[in-house]
Amino acid sequence: MHTVIPSDAPRWVADSLHETPWVVVRRARCAHGVVPVGVRGATRAQRHALTVALTTIAEVVTPEDLSRREPPARAPAFEALRMVRNHLSASLFRWGPTGSVGFELATGTPTVHPDSDLDLLIRAPVVDPTTMRLLRETHGILADQNIRVDCQVETDGGAVALSELCSGSVELMIRTADGPALVDAAALSR
Question: What are the residue boundaries of the Phosphoribosyl-dephospho-CoA transferase MdcG C-terminal domain, all occurrences included (predicted)?
């Protein structure tokens, strides 16, 4: 990826991209041919939003691609990924790790530490009764892990936290390209 870093970007952004020339896609509305991305710095507080031209992207790695990569054995988040992999791989869902686990699996740059949680994405374009039953089963398995597992379910309308989707709440917060919004849970389930 070749990108022009805005002059108002913090210095660490250029340093980070020089060391690890990878970014993560973020949720935002952009012009055609432009992708909203985020740069990860050395600390959790170092995150910076940019946009890049689609033509400058050299490689795309999806969470689904990362679900098949073997994680290192050095952190509880990787152990949790190994534990949930069999269930998720046997499910009908397209899924994969995101967050620090996904970033490390994609780039090889150590970002996972002993206190890292496991962030997951499950793609469920339509949340029908069968899908909801499988999501509840998955939620139970993720809740049994020794670390925090934060799972987002990507639907046709946006992403919602699996824990919230399974909570029985009447309204759910969905994350869209236009920002978060409250939606009626019944409207999400078809």
Answer: 72-185
Q: Is 156 an annotated catalytic residue?
A: no
**CB of 148 closer than 8 Å to CB of 163:** no
Distance (Å, whole) CA 141 – CA 132: 14
What pLDDT does residue 44 have? 84
Q: Which of 8, 65, 115, 117 is catalytic?
A: 117
pTM of the model: 0.91
Q: Answer whether residue 118 shows pLDDT above 90.
A: yes
| Residue count (the chain) | 190
Strand partners, 174: 181
| Candidate list 119, 128, 156, 178, residue with the active-site label | 119
Domain extents for the chain?
A: 11-56, 63-188
| 3-state SS class at 104 | helix
Q: Which residues contact 111 (CB under 8 A, 6 or more apart)?
A: 40, 100, 103, 104
The yes-or-no answer on residue 15 being catalytic is: no
Average pLDDT value for the chain: 92
Q: For residue 3, what pLDDT is reported?
A: 58
DSSP conformation class of 130: H
